[in-house]
Amino acid sequence: MTLPLPAILAMLAVTLALAVWALGDLVAGWGDARRLVARSELGTTTAATVRMHRIDAALRRTAVGRLLERRIAASGTRIRVSTLALAMLAASAAAVVLIGKWIAPVFGIAAAVGVVFLILGFLRRREEQRREEFIAQLPELARVLSNATNAGLAMRTALEIAADELADPAGEELRRTVDALRLGQSLDDALHDLGERLPSRELGVLISTLVVSSRAGGSLITALRAIGTTLEERKEIRREVKTIMGEAVVTNWSIGVLCVAGVALVNVIQPGALRTMSEHLVGQVILAAAAVLFVTSLIVIRRFTRIDV
C-alpha cells in the first residue's frame, strides 16, 4: 500500500518537529542552570509543563517507563522520559513510512526496530562511558577519602569533601549520596544505591571496604590507600586492553555499516529487487538468513572484544 505524498510530508513534518523538540529539551537540560531556574520559577508553571509532568508520571508507573528512567539517569542525559518515548515513536513511524516506501514494508518494520535499538544503544553507550569515567576517578576518590579520614573526619564528612573536590561524574554521584545521607538514609543504604547506579567491580570493592570498616572498624586509612594503588594499576591495564582491542571494535562497526550499505546498494543497482524478494517465500528466506548471519557476526565480534579486567 502506497501512501500519498501529502501524508508522507505530514509524517516528515511531525517527525522533524518532535526531533527538534527532543533536541531542545536535551540541550536545555545540560548544566545546573535548568535546576536553578526550575527552583526559582515554581509559581510560573505553564499548562504545557503540567501536561508533560503528568505524561512523565504516567510513563514512570509502567515497567517500560521505569526502565527508560533508569537508563536515562545512568547515562547522565538530561531529557524527559516522555520526550524520549515520543522521539522513539516518531522516528520509528518515519522509518516505517520512508524505508517501507523506498524498499519494502518488511524493511520499514526492520528499520523501525533498528531505530529503537539505536536510541537504546546510544543510552547504553553513554552509560558505559559515564561508568568508565567514574571508574577512572576511583583512585582519586580513594585518596581523598583516605586523607579525610586520616585527618579525623567522619565518613559522611569525607564524602561531602569528595563530592565538592571531584569533577563529574564522580562529583554528581557523590552529591546524590550525600543528599540521601542528609535526608536520613543510612550510610550502608546510600553506598548500596551508589553501587546500583554505577555497577562495577572496582566500585563494589571500595563500597564493601567502607561498609565493613563502618560496621566492624579497622584500619580504614591503610585499606583506602591500598585500594587507591590497586585501582590505579587496574586503570592502566584497562587502558592497554582498550587500545589493543580497538581494531576489533572498528571491525565490528564496519560490518554493521557494510550490512546496511549492501542492502541499499542492491536496491540502487536493481530498483525494486528487494521489494520483489520480500514478496516471495524464497526471497524472504534468503533475506532472513542474511540478517541472522549479520547479527550473529556482530554479536560474536562484540563478545570477543568484551574483556573484563
Automatic annotation (TrEMBL):
Q: Does the keyword Glycosyltransferase apply?
A: no
Leader sequence residues: none
The way this protein sits in the membrane is described as: Multi-pass membrane protein
Q: Where in the cell is it found?
A: Cell membrane
The name on file for this protein is Type II secretion system F family protein
InterPro entries (UniProt xref)? T2SS_GspF_dom, T2SS_GspF_sf
One Pfam family this sequence matches: T2SSF
